[in-house]
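Box 3.1 — From sequence to structure: UDP-glucose 4-epimerase
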Amino acid sequence: MTWLVTGGAGYIGAHVVRALRDAGLAPVVLDDLSSGHAAFVPEGVPFVRASLLDAEAVAAALTDHDVTGVIHVAGFKYAGVSVQRPLHTYEQNVTGMITLLESMQRAGVEQCVFSSSAAVYGAVDVDLVTETTAKNPTSPYGESKLIGEWLLRDQEIAAGLRHTSLRYFNVVGSGDPAVRDTSPHNLFPLVFDALAEGRQPRIYGTDYPTPDGTCVRDYLHVADLALAHVAAARRLEAGEPLEPAYNLGSGDGVSVRQIMDAVASVTGIAVEPELAERRPGDPPRIVASGELAARDLGWAMRHTLAEMVDSAWEARRASA
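Predicted structure (token representation):
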């Protein structure tokens, strides 16, 4: 069975590609390298450099490589930036999804795992987010991911597409020192950049109603996330039932202060964060339950916070 991984040259997609290969499945990468890196694609894995908006290139990739399923990771992933660039976000994430689904239907590809986002929930006010928590996205990015899930649902009704969506929050760590998070907006790269430049990272808000006063979020190791994508693909291949969507959550979360302490412990660098005022709209706690995913996908948090930081730091140093 051959699986096309859109965005397979990116941080998350490249880990999915490796997990597919390690599971004995045949991955093919489609990526326009707008944020990915050709060097992240393992040797021997077919690589199609193309945009999802290029319908002919997508169709050719599906047919030329006899693709049987798609793991759709590609997208414009910067929630904050999406507020300033809504049209670009919708073009990349919604028009791109439509182009992909049209190409899949023409090629007879009827299986899709969608890398969605917990941003579909917005700024929730519940202790634990479940799949039935109300969807109130607060950014064009979150809205575009929710629309993507709707498109999958509607294509199931119209054309028999079999699919599932995986929702998650913050992805960190590395499963291969050759692949690291290069996003200019994610917490770990921002902290490492600050330390490398002799600056201190910043904590926004220390007076939240949490154990240490800083925001609490889900942080997931990217290799664990990749395994969940492969498990979903295997269940689709086997014709086994799947929920429309799964949360990949920790169930308890980690605070920003705990992350700073872990970075100091792992790197041996003194971390004394600058303390700043709260940012508007930041909820004190957003943590998801992973119970459904554990039941159906074998989802588990296989890495400690220290292991997440250590693997990310190793990949950062390997790229220096």
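Summary of the box: The first strand starts at residue 2 and ends at 6.
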